[in-house]
Design brief:
Helix content is 40%, strand content 16%. It has 17 helices and 15 strands. It has helices at 2-7, 44-48, 52-58, 72-87, 95-105, 138-142, 225-237, 281-284, 317-320, 322-325, 334-337, 343-369, 373-402, 428-451, 458-475, 479-496, 507-530; strands at 10-13, 16-19, 37-40, 113-121, 124-137, 147-160, 165-171, 182-184, 192-193, 196-197, 200-201, 208-209, 213-219, 253-261, 272-275. Strands 8-7-6-5-4-15 form a 6-stranded mixed beta sheet. Strands 2-1-3 form a 3-stranded antiparallel beta sheet, with no helix packed on it. A two-stranded antiparallel ribbon has the order 9-10. A hairpin with a 2-residue loop joins strand 9 (192-193) and strand 10. It is globular, with a radius of gyration of 26 Å. The model is unreliable at 243-251, 498-505 and 535-545 (pLDDT under 50).
């Protein structure tokens, strides 16, 4: 429940504390604080009071080696990510341990609470649920992307208003949105208990999934898209099978940040349900953050805002337009599916939307003159929703005129859904050790000629890097792929072997790279030693046909 969390937190506005633990109430959060406010659950003194035995008892939660789950690109990305933590403001060390101890000491986990609301959006009856967590400890607990105080996760059930029957279930997952987050009520991937959906929370991150397993984080890096396309083209040309973690990633890159959702942890079946009402002061008016604001420029290590607002104070699409958030504007409830679709009623719908757009534009103009920022934001969200609906109706009209409107299956909307990783093979630990040392060795191989100020030996060392990639295939027991890569590298070496390398003194860069390689190797070895075995998932994988 947010009430207990807030009561034990401090409230900071513009860098000044205006209320400490025991003084902050939910009503206080509605005092026009703006988006410069944030709560702070763990104080500096509470962090310092954590003793070594407590930190050790709550540490060591890594559930299986992660670096071997992705290839070279992903492991390089992990090294760059670790380097960024040195430069970015992050959640202070021991915050996770102190938050866990404080939450348990004050009984904050004794009454699992779910916040919910019912709202009619378009043709859909939407049941909207929100879950609050004291701490997101994905980075410190599971070597994930981030740590931050507080965490909000959400789920939606879209019902047919005619009989209130559930049709679709949507579960939040990081910052993703769209049709890939939803599953049909009759989909075999969606598991239910007494007609209630079962969702599996990722350890530390709390991202929600429909079936148990480990999920690799997918990161879309626009600058790397051409490189990834070249890589996949070369794999196809050499008939090299893509790694399991690369399947279905589209333009995204598989990073070694694993959401462990095996389904064998705590199960919550009994909830205290509280109404999520915009009129409640703490919810409808508080635009600040629900935990410590580290001022991380990437926002990753900053606490989140609530289900209604984003960190910049703007209203979330998932709140104002959950139908659009789930990609359902062009999908009707079953009770309306049999209505005749004609060009006439599409034209009528477009005319109605145009009238609505004119009205919203006038309201935005009035709100702008009256300097009502919240009303402008609300009307802006409504305007975006109407424009999207109009575009979708225009697309439907075009398809009708071509005569290609057909029915869709319950999984046809899925383009890039999250898929659990395959279980580790018998060579899992060999691969884990290789993944732990390979990138640091590559970095040292590049640093060595720079320190020697003799770039003429860089060619042989690059050949060593190529040999590493061949060994990668051998460790994964892909012998044909290793042979093809060997032939490719020999051809490339013959083509570019005549290119001479100019000797340049790069001591500073080489030294920095060497130090970074050693630190990365130490960190990876420490992580590998902290891995422990875990039980099997609570359910068998689903055969999705």
């Amino acid at each position: 429940s947010v009430e207990g969390y807030v009561a034990h937190s401090a409230l900071i506005v513009g860098g000044s504390q205006i209320g400490g633990p025991g003084e902050v109430t939910l009503e206080l959060l509605d005092h026009n604080l703006g988006d410069a406010a944030h709560l702070r659950f763990v104080s500096e003194g509470e962090r310092r009071s954590v003793v070594k035995d407590e930190a050790k008892r709550l540490a060591g939660k890594l559930l299986g080696p992660r670096l071997g789950r992705v290839g070279y690109f992903g492991r390089m990305l992990d090294a760059l990510f670790l380097a960024s933590l040195v430069l970015r403001p992050t959640t202070p060390r021991l915050t996770t341990v102190a938050a866990s101890l404080k939450a348990d000491r004050n009984g904050l986990h004794d009454r699992p609470t779910c916040y919910g609301r019912v709202v009619q959006v378009g043709d859909w009856l939407v049941l909207h649920y929100a879950f609050f967590y004291v701490m997101n400890d994905w980075r410190s607990g599971y070597r994930g992307v981030n740590d931050h105080e507080a965490d909000w996760e959400q789920a939606w059930i879209f019902c047919d208003p005619a009989d209130q029957a559930p049709v679709w279930v949507v579960a939040s997952s990081h910052d993703n949105a769209g049709a890939d987050l939803r599953r049909h009520w009759d989909d075999t991937e969606l598991r239910r208990l007494d007609d209630r959906p079962i969702l599996y929370a990722g350890a530390g991150s709390h991202a929600l999934y429909f079936r148990p397993g480990d999920y690799v984080t997918r990161i879309d890096v626009p600058a790397l898209r051409p490189l990834l396309r070249v890589r996949r083209w070369s794999q196809r040309a050499l008939s090299i099978r893509e790694e399991e973690t690369d399947r279905g990633l589209g333009p995204a890159l598989g990073a070694p940040f694993v959401d462990a959702a095996p389904g064998n942890g705590r199960t919550i079946e009994s909830w205290t349900l509280e109404h999520l009402d915009e009129q409640r002061s703490w919810f409808g008016g508080y635009r600040g953050l629900w935990g410590l604001d580290t001022t991380d420029p990437l926002n990753s290590e900053r606490a989140p805002a609530g289900p209604k607002f984003q960190r910049d104070g703007e209203i979330r699409q998932s709140w104002a337009d959950p139908v659009g958030f789930a990609g359902l504007h062009s999908t009707s409830p079953p009770s309306l599916a049999d209505l005749q679709i004609s060009l006439d009623n599409i034209e009528a719908g477009l005319d109605h939307i145009d009238d609505e757009l004119r009205q919203v534009s006038r309201l935005m103009s009035l709100a702008s003159r009256a300097s009502v920022g919240e009303e402008i934001a609300h009307q802006s969200d409504q305007l975006s929703s109407l424009l999207k609906q109009r575009t979708e109706l225009q697309d439907l009209r075009r398809r009708l005129r071509r005569g290609d409107v057909t029915g869709r299956g319950i999984r046809d909307h899925l383009e890039d859904p999250a898929v659990p990783l395959a279980p580790p093979k018998e060579t899992g630990w060999i691969l884990a050790i290789w993944a732990t040392v390979s990138i640091p060795l590559v970095m040292l191989s590049i640093a060595a000629p720079l320190l020697l100020s003799n770039l003429r030996v860089l060619g042989p060392l690059l050949a060593l890097v190529a040999a590493f990639s061949v060994l990668e295939q051998l460790v994964r027991r892909r012998f044909n792929a290793a042979l093809r890569l060997s032939v490719l590298y020999v051809a490339v070496a013959a083509l570019f072997g005549f290119v001479s390398v100019v000797t340049v003194s790069l001591y500073a860069f080489g030294a920095t790279l060497a130090v970074a390689a050693v630190l990365l190797l130490i960190g990876n070895l420490g992580e590998l030693s902290a891995v422990r075995r875990r039980g099997e998932p609570t359910a068998e994988p689903v055969d999705l046909g």
